[in-house]
Design goal:
alpha/beta, 6-stranded parallel sheet, 12 strands, single chain, 6-stranded mixed sheet, Rossmann fold
């Protein structure tokens, strides 16, 4: 029989990332490194969810004491629809990559993808890229590949960087057209992949999930302007197929999305815990020399 004077064990707060696939995710390692900075006691795991089982997986995780989730491909749109309360960033994106569960049963949704991407672009491009000290993408043309939850999550923050033009390209043009916002600060239009032939862009961002299948989007040659950046939101231990394509096609700066992952994870951590970790320490731990 337990001595009533013995204190109960300090149980960790439970968090996880849900997706399909998700075994490759580095989010558990990232959040453990964040927690170590503050001395927080958390348990963070990766949970692969059946494509038709997201809502039930969330319910089961909550019922066993889960307090928050990160959400990745392909469940970001469903996570937004599942929430009771959404932040402005989640509403702008109509997609969520972070959920928080309150004691009264409310599901709160947030989207940290755009903040994470812009912070990493600023790190890669540096102040020399900015036009006369203005917004990060001032005077630049941007091509976004894809029209799913990943692109929806970053579009508003990219527009706040004031690019000169934004093209959203997708296999199904009608899905890209849904994201075009007429009358904004940038010239925006939708396109199919092959219709991009003959055009040149300063920043090309791959937000498709083609890399999970070992593929790159079916793009024409010659997309990159002089000095252009190619950025893949996917990441891995080796260059992604899109990064290989960009290297062959002459992009000057090529990056995967590990930096974005760390930055958006820090925003999620702040959403859950009210404090923002040091991301550079974590990025260097994950990829020495970065």
């Amino acid at each position: 029989m337990r001595d009533e004077r013995t204190p109960l064990p300090d149980l960790p707060e439970r968090y996880a990332v849900m997706g399909n696939p998700v075994s490759h995710s580095r989010s558990p390692a990232i959040h453990r490194l964040f927690a170590r900075q503050f001395g927080d006691h958390i348990d963070y795991t990766a949970i692969e969810v059946d494509l038709d089982g997201f809502a039930e997986a969330v319910r089961r995780f909550r019922s066993t004491g889960g307090q928050g989730l990160n959400v990745t491909v392909p469940f970001k749109l469903e996570a937004f629809r599942l929430a009771d309360v959404c932040t402005d960033l989640a509403k702008q994106a109509q997609a969520a990559n972070t959920l928080r569960f309150t004691n009264d049963g409310t599901i709160e949704a947030h989207n940290t993808d755009g903040l994470g991407l812009v912070r990493d672009l600023a790190r890669l491009l540096g102040v020399g890229w900015r036009a006369r000290g203005g917004p990060l993408l001032s005077g630049k043309s941007v091509l976004l590949l894809g029209a799913g939850g990943a692109v929806r999550g970053v579009l508003a923050q990219l527009l706040e960087c004031v690019p000169e033009a934004v093209v959203i390209a997708n296999r199904t043009i009608s899905r890209a057209q849904e994201l075009v916002r007429p009358g904004g600060l940038s010239a925006m239009r939708a396109s199919g992949f092959q219709d991009l032939a003959g055009q040149h862009f300063d920043v090309v961002i791959n937000g498709t999930s083609a890399g999970l299948k070992g593929e790159a989007p079916p793009l024409p040659r010659g997309l990159f302007a002089t000095g252009a950046l190619a950025y893949d939101m996917m990441y891995g231990d080796r260059p992604t197929p899109f990064m290989d394509y960009a290297a062959r096609d002459g992009a000057a700066i090529i990056s995967d999305g590990l930096g974005m992952l760390v930055e958006q994870a820090a925003e999620s951590y702040c959403f859950w815990h009210g404090k923002r970790p040091d991301t550079q320490i974590v990025l260097k731990a994950l990829r020495p020399g970065s």
